[in-house]
Amino acid sequence: MKHFDEAATRAPLGFDRLVPALRAAFAAGAQVPPRHVHAIDTTAGASGKGTVLIMPAWSDAGFLGIKTINIFPGNSERGLPGLHATYVLYDARTGVPLAMMDGNEITARRTAAASALGASFLARADARRLLVLGTGRIARMLPAAHASVRPIDELWVWNHRPEGAQALAAQWRAEGWNARAATDLEAAVRQADIVSCATLATSPLVRGEWLAPGSHLDLIGSFTPAMREADARCFDGALTWVDTEEALQKSGDLLDAMAAGTLRAEEVQGTLAMLCRGEHPGRTNDAGRTVFKAVGSALEDLAAATLVWQSGDVI
Fold first, then answer.
1. Distance (Å, whole) CA 254 – CA 51
2. pLDDT of residue 315
3. Domain range for residue 289?
4. Contact between residue 292 and residue 275 where contact means Cβ atoms under 8 Å apart
């Protein structure tokens, strides 16, 4: 079994390749069973509470992949990332293990790429001002991902720890971006063309009355009913899309909106697969608001892992 370390996993996953690969994968489809979710509660108290996800998928292309992802929000107190993952790729015809890959890189890059893929259908064609909520691994990748599909030339970043936003804005400026930290979240949301939330928040951060006409709200951080990044009014009057139908059961954002009556399940416009297959054009005018809610799909992991395997750059 071959081993792709962090650098070897990252190298083939530039967004100019990964976003089109996800688009092709969603159009083609794959077998994606429901993820297994397990709560971990150790004697370490609140800082020892976490979630383990087990996410399998296989396709007619002959690959089977299984990702194990451990999410421990309390790790920030230890100076550690909140997410750790491994990915194993198999031959779907024989079950023979082919490779172990860095699951953190696959998860972060495919999540950012799915965010950009959604925006490629749902954000205005001239969207240029991106506001990112969060400063973690995925949040750091969002400018490059969105710039692969939209003419992004202005970045704002907000974080519940202002010093984190300041540091990330400085890093982006060093990389050549026109980037600033936002201290007034409401004002930043009101000015943004795309608001992309990549946090582990359990209480709403974005309020619907802040969102500008024609804006696109991208919600990719929360993935359980207990997590939420947007209040129920964010969905009122907006056209809402999901990455997969599983989002309707897993997303605290959607569940809250449906309970409040600002969204009905039958009003959800469709999934990424429908967009990628050309069954719906996505945004049809510049004035309306759009929302994309993603909880992640093992199909995305499999598409990314297949790109890595086909690159042949192994150690």
1. 20
2. 42
3. 121-297
4. no
